[in-house]
Specification:
The complex is a heterodimer of chains A (433) and B (125).
Chain A lengths: L1 H6 L1 H14 L13 H44 L4 E5 L5 E4 L1 H6 L4 H4 L13 H14 L3 E8 L5 E11 L8 E8 L1 H56 L5 H29 L7 E3 L1 H18 L2 E6 L7 E3 L1 H26 L4 E10 L2 E8 L6 H6 L15 H11 L3 E5 L5 E8 L3
Parallel strand pairs in A: 7-9
Antiparallel strand pairs in A: 1-2, 1-5, 3-4, 4-5, 6-8, 9-10, 10-12, 11-12
Helix pairs in contact in A: 7-8, 7-9, 9-10, 10-12
Chain B lengths: L3 E5 L3 H13 L3 E5 L2 H7 L6 E6 L7 H10 L6 E5 L6 H5 L3 E4 L4 H21 L1
Parallel strand pairs in B: 1-2, 1-3, 3-4, 4-5
Classes of the chains: A alpha+beta (433), B alpha/beta (125).
């Protein structure tokens, strides 16, 4: 581009000369009538002007070269930026896009421009995208959101959108400038870490139970060992003659004392386990359902199970202990996932669904967990909440008992609904007011 | 030389029951409530065997065993514990390992075996 400017130099001056001839008044002064002295001065001044013009001309050319270089630089910055750029018109149609955006969506840029961007948004993110666009055009402030986009090959990628509306001129339709950042890796890492968190919490509880059992075993062993030896001694004493009644009596008292010691150890351990009940507070149940659901979502997704939330947004706050409700719901969700996995193993069905629904029932808030597993019949439904009853091969049979105790301690109730198709569990909690 | 069964256990009820049981069967018994006191007391003149509790406050069973070895005392030691697991390194210095609660016949057999070993060692020296 630089060389081209230099080559054009001669042509440009030729055409300028032509244009100058057309200017009125040029070539109309008769310089021959001027005295020689004035002519000399004139020529001198003209020389100066010519030199000045040449300098100006050189500067102009330099500026033009720099402008061309800057354009090149901005072109590259725009096209190959690490983030995607997309410009939308008021109707959501793509009016411009850089190479990065096209590459992210796995589509040729020519095919992208002119397309409506909503066609590149995954079904589950359509609502988020619609609200985002509305916010951008109505607020004129920068808006951002995270959503899943569809690539040309049908796969999806997680993207953070940052958008701002602008109008180049007052009368022009506003446009929307968007930045697309690929956050698929970050999302995957987040999901993994959520899954690990949940597993770690589960492991921690298991370890606590183990530790408690070990401690209990050690403490109980002492009086048991003493009792065993005392009984041995008693046996020997009984065989002796004459019978030492006094010694035998003391022996039996010792056995009694050690047995009581064992009982005291168990009571102390129970008091330790039965921690003080946490205080109930007013809670947004819907928010709690969403966060708890997020904890198991990645585990569910890895089993090809989708979890949907149908929340009654008018639900007033409930009076409860957050971790209790979370634990109870986690147990129900874990059961639902296991039930679906089991049904699938038997029927060959591929995907599964779990829905979590919140609703108001007079002065209670109800949560219903519905899964696409095989469900439970009436006999099983009756026994489900018994300790150590399990329909699972590896189940301990304490998850539902714990959940029931937790919900009941909050003044609520938890029950299973026997159904032919799918498992249905409900729990209710008192409203805060 | 009379042989003595030395009991080292920080639990009073175990100590007393064990002492009574062994005395009824004709053994001479001396009981210690902590490992440090036994190690301090023990010298070349001690004959018999040691019934040593593993999990004690203060010096635990393994530490007592190490300190006895450091003093050059070769009394046969029987470990006595409620914990099921013991590694080979610990067993290396002991002649037997008994679980609490202990079976009487097993206890007596172990003690007799340990006392016999003590006699044999003394005869060799």
């Amino acid at each position: 581009m630089v060389r081209k400017v230099r080559n054009d130099k001669a042509d440009v001056s030729q055409s300028l000369r032509e244009q100058a001839r057309q200017v009125p008044g040029v070539n109309q002064n008769d310089v021959t009538a001027l005295p020689a002295e004035d002519l000399k001065t004139l020529v001198h001044e003209l020389d100066f002007h010519r030199a000045e013009l040449e300098i100006q001309n050189e500067e102009l050319r330099q500026a033009q070269v720099e402008l061309a270089q800057a354009l090149d630089r901005y072109y590259e910055l725009y096209e190959f930026s690490p983030v995607g750029y997309i410009t939308l018109n008021n109707d959501g149609q793509i009016t411009a896009a850089n190479q990065t955006a096209a590459r992210m969506l796995g589509i040729k840029r020519q095919a992208l421009v002119g397309e409506n961007l909503s066609k590149c948004i995954a079904q589950r993110s359509q609502d988020v995208f619609y609200l985002h666009r509305q916010a951008v055009f109505s607020s004129k402030l920068k808006q951002s959101c995270e959503l899943d986009m569809l690539k040309e090959d049908g796969t999806t990628l997680s993207v953070r959108l940052e958008s701002v509306a602008f109008a180049q001129e007052q009368e022009q339709q506003p446009q929307c400038q968007m930045i697309l950042v690929d956050i698929t890796e970050q999302k995957t890492a987040e999901q993994l870490s959520d899954q690990h968190l949940e597993e770690a919490a589960h492991l921690q509880r298991t370890m606590m139970v183990n530790e408690l059992a070990t401690g209990l075993a050690h403490e109980l062993n002492q009086p048991l060992a003493a009792i065993a030896m005392m009984a041995d001694i008693g046996e020997v004493l009984l065989a002796q003659s004459p019978l030492d009644r006094c010694q035998l009596q003391e022996n039996l008292q010792q056995i009694n004392k050690q047995a009581l010691r064992g009982g005291a150890i168990i009571r102390g351990m129970m008091a330790l386990v039965k921690k003080k009940p946490l205080e109930s507070v007013a809670l947004d149940l819907n928010a709690l359902l969403s966060t708890t659901c997020a904890l198991v979502r990645s585990k569910a997704e890895s089993s090809h199970i989708t979890i949907s939330l149908e929340l009654d947004m008018t639900l007033p706050p409930v009076k409860a202990v957050g971790v209790y409700v979370e634990q109870a719901l986690l147990n129900l969700l874990r059961n639902a996932i296991d039930a679906i996995d089991e049904t699938r193993a038997n029927s060959g069905q591929i995907s599964g669904q779990i829905s979590i629904e919140s609703s108001r029932q007079q002065n209670m808030a109800r949560v219903t967990v519905h899964d696409s597993g095989s469900g439970v019949n009436e006999q099983v439904a009756k026994r489900l909440f018994e300790s150590f009853f399990s329909t699972k091969e590896q189940g301990l049979g304490i998850g539902l008992t714990i959940s029931l105790n937790l919900i009941q301690s909050l003044g609520g109730r938890l029950w299973a609904e026997p159904q032919q198709r799918g498992g249905v569990f409900h729990f209710e909690l008192p409203l805060a007011s | 030389m009379t042989q003595t069964v030395f009991i080292v256990d920080d639990d009073k009820s175990i100590r007393e029951a064990l002492q009574l049981l062994l005395e009824i069967f004709g053994f001479k018994v001396k009981a210690y409530a902590d490992g440090g006191a036994f190690v301090a007391d023990c010298d070349e003149s001690f004959a018999g065997c040691v019934l040593l509790d593993m999990a004690m406050t203060g010096l635990d069973g393994a530490e007592v065993l190490a300190q006895l070895a450091a003093k050059g005392i070769r009394l046969p030691v029987i470990f006595f514990s409620g914990h099921g697991n013991i590694d080979d390194a610990m067993l290396a210095g002991a002649v037997a390992f008994l679980h609490k609660p202990v079976n009487k016949d097993e206890l007596l057999a172990c003690v007799n075996k340990a006392l016999a070993l003590d006699l044999k060692r003394r005869a060799e020296d």
